[in-house]
Design a protein that fits this description.
Elements lengths: L7 H12 L5 H17 L17 E2 L5 E2 L1 H5 L4 E5 L6 H18 L5 E6 L3 H10 L5 E4 L4 H6 L2 E2 L3 H9 L4 H4 L7 E2 L2 E5 L5 E6 L9 H7 L4
Parallel strand pairs: 3-4, 4-5
Antiparallel strand pairs: 1-2, 3-8, 6-7, 8-9
Helix pairs in contact: 1-4, 2-7, 4-9
Pfam families: AhpC-TSA
EC number: 1.11.1.24
Enzyme class: oxidoreductase
Length: about 220
């Protein structure tokens, strides 16, 4: 049973144990091969580092209202999380953990928590409602922030076919009709909009632990 104090890695282990054997063999193989390829490729070239300006773009809130990351931060430092979408079980695990563990840690520190994905606003709303999120969840049509950070990727042809066999087509879910998705990334942004810390996970089954984010707050 998952408790509020368990790490994201422990929660993912429980998730994967529950998923074992549920997917058709060819689908599981496609996902496994993709994961192995992402691990082997490692960190993409060109990822922004501390000291760079945080990218922004024309974003949408969970109700479809135009906004920006700067507007969501409202002049405050922020922890910005990029995630793939409400369809991704690993994203649900991570954002639920951040709600339970990171939101209380940020309370009183004057630091915003903002999650960004390329999905349509109704996907953002689904994510927020399903996981009872109290922090800001934004839609990024065209993956402007992910591209700016250097963490934009897309499923392989084999994975795209596997996803479609499960009734999942990212082109239908993403706000701009493409299949681009961000590598799960956590960025600590100061009040001036400068990156102070960034943690990128090419392997989407792993995520930045809350303890690492809280430790990085000392950089502000």
């Amino acid at each position: 049973m998952t408790t509020i104090n368990t790490t994201i890695a422990e929660r993912v282990e429980v998730l994967q144990a529950g998923m074992a054997g549920q997917l058709p063999a060819d689908v599981a193989t496609a996902f496994g091969d993709e994961q192995a390829g992402l691990v082997a490729a490692g960190m993409p070239a060109g990822v922004l580092s501390a000291g760079a300006a945080m990218p922004d773009g024309d974003l949408l809130d969970a109700h479809g209202t135009a906004t920006t990351l700067a507007a969501a931060r409202a002049g405050k430092p922020a922890v910005v999380v990029t995630y793939r979408g409400a369809w991704c079980p690993f994203c649900n695990v991570a954002l639920r953990a951040y709600q339970e563990q990171l939101v209380p840690a940020l309370a009183g520190r004057g630091v915003e928590l903002v999650a960004v994905s390329p999905q349509k606003p109704d996907g953002s709303l689904t994510m927020a409602e399903k996981n009872e999120l109290t922090f800001t969840v934004l839609s990024d049509p065209g993956n402007q922030i992910a591209a700016g950070l250097g963490v934009l990727t897309a499923p392989t042809d084999e994975v795209r076919a596997a996803q479609q066999s499960l009734g999942l087509d990212l082109a239908d879910l993403n706000a701009d009709g493409t299949r681009g998705i961000p590598m799960p990334t956590v960025v600590l942004v100061d009040a001036e909009g400068t990156i102070r810390w960034i943690d990128v996970h090419p392997d989407y089954t792993t995520r930045t632990e809350t303890s690492a984010i809280v430790a990085a707050l000392e950089l502000l």
